[in-house]
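User: Show me sequence and structure for the first protein, then do the same for the second.

Assistant: Starting with the first protein.
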Amino acid sequence: MIPRRFRLLAVFLLSLLLMIFLSGCWDEHELHTLFIVTGVALDESDDPEKMDITVQIAKSQSKSSRSGDTEPQENYIILLKNKSGTMMEGLMEFNRDSSRTLMLNHNQVLLFGSSLAKQGIKDHIDLFMRDQDSRMEVLMIVVDGRGEEALAAKLSQDRISGMFISRVIRTMSSVSSYYQVRMLDFVSRLLEETTSPVVPIVTVTKKGKMEEIKITGMAVFKGDKMIDRLSNDETLGYIWAMGDVKHCNVVTSTEVGKAVFQIIKLDCKRDVKIRQDGGIGVKLSVNTTLSVGEISGFSETTSEELMPYLVKIAQEEIKRKIMNSFETARRLNADIYGFGTSVYRKYPKEWKSMKDSWDEIFSDIELNVQVKAHIPVTGQITQPLGIKEE
């Protein structure tokens, strides 16, 4: 019989051997064999059967390139371009003609030129949904013009424009999660069938020798095709109607003065009802807490009259923007709010007869917006300079 101490020693040695030979990743790749993708842009091609594909790759920075901010953009990124019928063909061509393999795991943004977006993008995102190296959380952006222009933009704030756009969108998501549209969110709205997806739209503009990239609204889709856009003001109305908003400004201007409020918190509850005539009525109950960021004028207003008046004009401005956004959506016949889904959840039986004619029903919706605002404080001073003090 083998002594117990020898058996314990044998188990220890076997465990040590297993740790040595079975550790590590079976599919690991050396960094020098990879191109790390930070942005992908898809644009309309002069060949109607193909599309222009641009891939932005972040270079590994050397010590000298990190020592100052005077390095040209070419020292930070590589742009690969080709023309292919599908994304898979494009990736295969990139890998075939390159000394390294494209790595999509760290891709930050998926950009669509506005012309291609108007033609439809469902087929173009199929690979990103199926490929195991791609992420469903990648941000979708429409570029006013060509997507490749955004990837090639020379920015003063960030040398890698794909990373810059991603950071801007994620910063805006702290205001409202509806600014951040992932591929997963876009596809989910497509599957709802009656809900129209919206995607942030950015514009590239010249500023001296550099460029700027700014969010200029939301691209509105009908199915997978872009049909129009919301301005930044209309986008505010849209996100306020969706609720869960923080750190957003409300700018008001009247004949007696101007006031700028900051939304501390804004929630919006919706209630859908079937009208007696068979149409749909939607009630939006907005409840918001505001702080006064800046006020000017109101010289003829007493301090006792000021606070109720500020609450009143803030409520009116929030309601006005929500209604303006809704009128634009109704004109486009695009249910960007998901009202159809709300009707389905509350009236599943009645929805069966409404679904096929939802476009006509949506254009006839009666929207009732009620805003309740609360301003707990006015700031470090209790009244604007020059206001009457009784």
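Switching to the second protein now.
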Amino acid sequence: MRRGVVDIGTNSTRLFLAEVEDGRVGDVLERRTVITRLGAGVDADGRLAEDAMERVYAVLDEYRDLIDGHGGAPAVAVMTSAVRDAANGGEFAGVVGERWGFEPHVLTGDEEAHLTFLGATSERDPADPTPTVVIDIGGGSTEFVIGTGHEVTFHVSNQAGVVRQTERHLHSDPPPPSEREELARDVREVFADGVPDEYRRSVSHAIGVAGTATSMASIAQGLEPYDPDKVEGYVVSGDECRRILDRLAALTLSERREVRGLHPDRAPTIVAGVIILLETLALFGLHDFEVSEHDILRGAALGLF
């Protein structure tokens, strides 16, 4: 059966259209990402801004046409931190369902965690006993989902994301060490409050999904154009993260837009993203993480129909 998933996140709006048979994803027909920054200003105002919603609406027009161009398919729209947190999030979700026919799902933290873990581990042996944390850094929050096989044992949604932390802390161009350390300290405190000690010590492997993690793999390899086959399974060390951070933080925003392997639209928030990644590795005592293209989009295609 053909299935479509639109992920309307804090920073990006993404499309996944694939054939799904016997609980496995087969041919992927479309996978698109547009940086729409729906969550811009939500941290301060508590509402989705009109111009941010219009950016998403324009992309949904394109995605509806793409799905219809493949002969149509049942399609859902999953929405996470920005919509969940905004006072007008429910109204926005209703418009998405009525105007484009995407069945809206404003995910709870539990639902988001299980779908993210399902997507990241869907191609793995369910009997694999390796305790794993899946790291999903979004625009408004960072999700940690811990489990073995395909089973979740712990998850937390930390209110620290690339858009939220950039808006709070990075005000200079390029951002000086003082602003970066302030951001890191804020993230460290949020993570310390969210993850009990026993879970910090319980994992031995990390999988990073979504834009920050995949950008790190792409920058590390200098991919131009982006190549998902080279990103999937790439292992990024903490040392490589630090080298990339030092390089990116020394550049102005316009210079970061020219970095090979980095999508220009991710340039405004990538410094915060790398800092969040480094704080995550430190929290769990890990030296590296594996990058995966398989995230909540795949999880929703497998788990929401």
